[in-house]
Every structure is written in structure tokens, then in C-alpha cells.
């Protein structure tokens, strides 16, 4: 229904951003909302409109390829939008595609909500069907450019909130905190680093 939105960032939360376009604010759920740190930045976000009986939700992505990968992931039985976002939030789509093509169940099981049965289902459903996405580059998911950090916000705490919103358990988050707390990073950089540490555990 909605291919993309072009507008200004009005607000950023651990789970979603608000984009204002033509006087209307759209709540768009993203893999890592903190890549959109600067309020009033003009952005173009590719959207996936998800409708169920009790909700009508917009999911947003930085590229058409990322959106297409999300769409393929949630077509798998056992993977809902939250699971699809958690997989994309790791920021390494080529790793995910490679894991599927190589039938690497152990790698896929590192994501929240993905057990042995679901990882096997992902491989069965998607192996050999992601060729058009094989060249998705990592920079389409995360902009490494330094962004201003609002003084009143703590980037590490915001990043931890984002991990919780993606479905990671407190015990998993606590394991990576010691490796992060002495770093001086932006929130989106903290999220990316934490996700990489989580999938390496």
C-alpha cells in the first residue's frame, strides 16, 4: 500500500520513529531506530504495511533490498515481524543470506525467537530464493556517519532499550554490557556493536 515515505524525523523511540510528511506523523517501526538520531532530518524510508485483525502497522527500512529481505523472512512460518526485525537489526544481511544458503542453523538460532525448528524452516523456505538480494551491502542497514548525541540522553541505555524492543532477553543483554560500557559511541553504533556481540555468543 505504501512504498515509501519522504519526510522529517519528528521523534525517535527504541522501537520506532515518527516521520512527519504533509502535516501527518507516521509511526514507523524500524530494525534500529537510532540510526535516525537527528530530529528534523529529511529521510526517505521504504515501508512495509502489515495488517492483522487487531493492528495496522508500518515497518520501515533504508533500502528496497532490506524491505524485500524482511518480506521474505516474515513469509516463513514461525517468523513474525518482530523476529524479522531482530534478524535485520544485526546489520549483516549478507551473513543471514549466506547462513541460509549454507544451511547454517546454529547461526540463525542466535536470533531471538528462532529455535531449531524455525531455523530449519527458514532454510527450507528461503534457500535458493535470495539470489536477487545477495548483493545487499551492510551500509544499507547502518549509516556509520557520526550523529549528534542529545545531551540529556544516554546512548548506551537507549541502545539497551532497543535490544529489549527487538526481543533479546535480559540475561543475553547483561552478557554484552561489560564489553560496551567503556566505549564512547553513538546509540546506533552501540546497537550495531551489541548485536554483533550477541550473534557471536
Automatic annotation (TrEMBL):
<protein>
    <recommendedName>
        <fullName>Holliday junction branch migration complex subunit RuvA</fullName>
    </recommendedName>
</protein>
<keyword id="KW-0963">Cytoplasm</keyword>
<comment type="subunit">
    <text>Homotetramer. Forms an RuvA(8)-RuvB(12)-Holliday junction (HJ) complex. HJ DNA is sandwiched between 2 RuvA tetramers; dsDNA enters through RuvA and exits via RuvB. An RuvB hexamer assembles on each DNA strand where it exits the tetramer. Each RuvB hexamer is contacted by two RuvA subunits (via domain III) on 2 adjacent RuvB subunits; this complex drives branch migration. In the full resolvosome a probable DNA-RuvA(4)-RuvB(12)-RuvC(2) complex forms which resolves the HJ.</text>
</comment>
<dbReference type="InterPro" id="IPR010994">
    <property type="entry name" value="RuvA_2-like"/>
</dbReference>
<feature type="domain" description="Helix-hairpin-helix DNA-binding motif class 1">
    <location>
        <begin position="106"/>
        <end position="125"/>
    </location>
</feature>
<dbReference type="GO" id="GO:0005737">
    <property type="term" value="C:cytoplasm"/>
</dbReference>
<dbReference type="GO" id="GO:0000400">
    <property type="term" value="F:four-way junction DNA binding"/>
</dbReference>
<keyword id="KW-0234">DNA repair</keyword>
<dbReference type="InterPro" id="IPR013849">
    <property type="entry name" value="DNA_helicase_Holl-junc_RuvA_I"/>
</dbReference>
<keyword id="KW-0238">DNA-binding</keyword>
<dbReference type="InterPro" id="IPR000085">
    <property type="entry name" value="RuvA"/>
</dbReference>
<dbReference type="InterPro" id="IPR003583">
    <property type="entry name" value="Hlx-hairpin-Hlx_DNA-bd_motif"/>
</dbReference>
<dbReference type="GO" id="GO:0005524">
    <property type="term" value="F:ATP binding"/>
</dbReference>
<dbReference type="GO" id="GO:0006281">
    <property type="term" value="P:DNA repair"/>
</dbReference>
<dbReference type="InterPro" id="IPR036267">
    <property type="entry name" value="RuvA_C_sf"/>
</dbReference>
<keyword id="KW-0227">DNA damage</keyword>
<feature type="domain" description="Helix-hairpin-helix DNA-binding motif class 1">
    <location>
        <begin position="71"/>
        <end position="90"/>
    </location>
</feature>
<comment type="function">
    <text>The RuvA-RuvB-RuvC complex processes Holliday junction (HJ) DNA during genetic recombination and DNA repair, while the RuvA-RuvB complex plays an important role in the rescue of blocked DNA replication forks via replication fork reversal (RFR). RuvA specifically binds to HJ cruciform DNA, conferring on it an open structure. The RuvB hexamer acts as an ATP-dependent pump, pulling dsDNA into and through the RuvAB complex. HJ branch migration allows RuvC to scan DNA until it finds its consensus sequence, where it cleaves and resolves the cruciform DNA.</text>
</comment>
<dbReference type="GO" id="GO:0009378">
    <property type="term" value="F:four-way junction helicase activity"/>
</dbReference>
<dbReference type="InterPro" id="IPR011114">
    <property type="entry name" value="RuvA_C"/>
</dbReference>
<dbReference type="Pfam" id="PF01330">
    <property type="entry name" value="RuvA_N"/>
</dbReference>
<dbReference type="Pfam" id="PF07499">
    <property type="entry name" value="RuvA_C"/>
</dbReference>
<dbReference type="GO" id="GO:0048476">
    <property type="term" value="C:Holliday junction resolvase complex"/>
</dbReference>
<dbReference type="InterPro" id="IPR012340">
    <property type="entry name" value="NA-bd_OB-fold"/>
</dbReference>
<feature type="region of interest" description="Domain III">
    <location>
        <begin position="151"/>
        <end position="201"/>
    </location>
</feature>
<comment type="similarity">
    <text>Belongs to the RuvA family.</text>
</comment>
<dbReference type="GO" id="GO:0006310">
    <property type="term" value="P:DNA recombination"/>
</dbReference>
<dbReference type="GO" id="GO:0009379">
    <property type="term" value="C:Holliday junction helicase complex"/>
</dbReference>
<keyword id="KW-0233">DNA recombination</keyword>
<dbReference type="Pfam" id="PF14520">
    <property type="entry name" value="HHH_5"/>
</dbReference>
